Amino acid sequence: MVDVLSQNEIDALLAALSSGEMDADELKKEETQKKVRSYDFKRAVRFSKDHIRTLTRIHENFARYLTTYFSAQLRTFVQINVVQVEQLPYDEFIRSIPKMTVLNIFEAEPLKGRMVLEVNPNVAMAMLDRMLGGAGLAPSKMQGFTEIETTVLERVFSRAFDSLQEAWKTVIDIRPRLESFETNPQFMQIVSPNETIALISLSTKIGDTSGMINLCIPHVVIEPIMPKLSAHHWFVSEKKQSEPIEVEMLKHRLEQAKLPIVVELGQSNITVQEMMQLSIGDVIPLDKKVGEGLSVRIGERLKYFATPGNVKERMAVQIEHVLEEGVEEYDE
C-alpha cells in the first residue's frame, strides 16, 4: 500500500531540501536501487493471476455441469461451487487430504501426464448411500470401501469426466479417461513432491451432507497449453461458438439417448380361458388386413406407418407414412 504524507510531513520535507539537510539526488539514487524480494523455490509461481482467473472460469462451468450430472444420477438436491483456485506444491496437497479418501487418477489426451479428482469420503459415501436406495447420508465412522462400492463409484466418476471435457472445450478438446481408483494417498505419486500444481476446490452438498471435491492439475501437464489460458484467448474462443456450451451438451446427450421402437402387427381380444387353451399351430385373427400398414410406435407414441418385408434374410419394415407432430392416434 502507498503511504500518503500529511501536510506537516510535506512541509518538513520541503524545508529539509531547501536548507540542504537532504539531497534530492541522493533520494533519486535510493529509488533506483534494486529492491530485494525473497523467493521460495519450493513454492514456485508457475500460474499467473490471468491463468488462475481463466482456470476459475473454466471450472465454474465444470461445477455447473457436475451439479446437473449428479442431480440426475442421485435424484436428489446437489449443489457444487468453486471455492478456490490456488497453486501449491504437490506434496502439500497430499498432506492436506484425508488418509482415506477417493482418488480418481485420470489422463486427458492429448495432454501428457496424470491428474487427480479427489472426493471427500463423506461425499462419496453419501453418493453410494443414495444410489443403493438410501437417503444419501454418510456414516459417522468410515471403514473403507468394499469391492462392490468401489465398482459403483468408478462407474459414476468415469462418466463425470464428460462434464470436464465439456468445460475445457473452449480451450482444448480433451478426452479424459479414468486410469485407476485409489483410496490411500500414499500409493499415489503422479509427479515429484515439489512440482507445482493448480488445485481447484469445489464445495459439494448432497442432501444434508457436505464435503469437498478437489481437482489436482500439475503444471507440467498443462504447460504446453498455458498460452491458451490467457483471458484474451479464452474470451475470443468463447465468442466464436455459435451456441452456448449447455445447448451443445444437451444436443449431444439427446443424440445418444435410446428410444424403444415397436412395430405392431395388429391387436386381438381373447378371453383368459381361450389363451390358456392355445397350442402350437393355433391361429389368432388380428384387427388388420394383410395390405394395411403396420403401426410403428416410438415409446408409447404412434409416429409412423410401415410395410413389412425382409432385408438380408431378416425381418424389416419400410416407413410409408409419417404422422404430423401433435397427432396422438391415426384414423385408419
From TrEMBL:
Keyword set includes DNA damage: no
Signal peptide bounds: none
Assigned keywords, A-Z: Bacterial flagellum, Cell membrane, Cell projection, Chemotaxis, Cilium, Flagellar rotation, Flagellum, Membrane
Molecular function as annotated in GO: cytoskeletal motor activity
GO biological process: bacterial-type flagellum-dependent swarming motility; positive chemotaxis
Compartments where found: Bacterial flagellum basal body; Cell membrane
Occurrences of domain Flagellar motor switch protein FliN-like C-terminal (ranges): 253-323
GO cellular component: bacterial-type flagellum basal body; plasma membrane
CDD domains: FliM (cd17908)
Major location (coarse): other
InterPro entries in alphabetical order: CheC-like_sf (IPR028976), Flag_FliM (IPR001689), FliN-like_C (IPR001543), SpoA-like_sf (IPR036429)
Record membrane topology: Peripheral membrane protein
Entry similarity comment: Belongs to the FliM family.
Descriptive protein name: Flagellar motor switch protein FliM
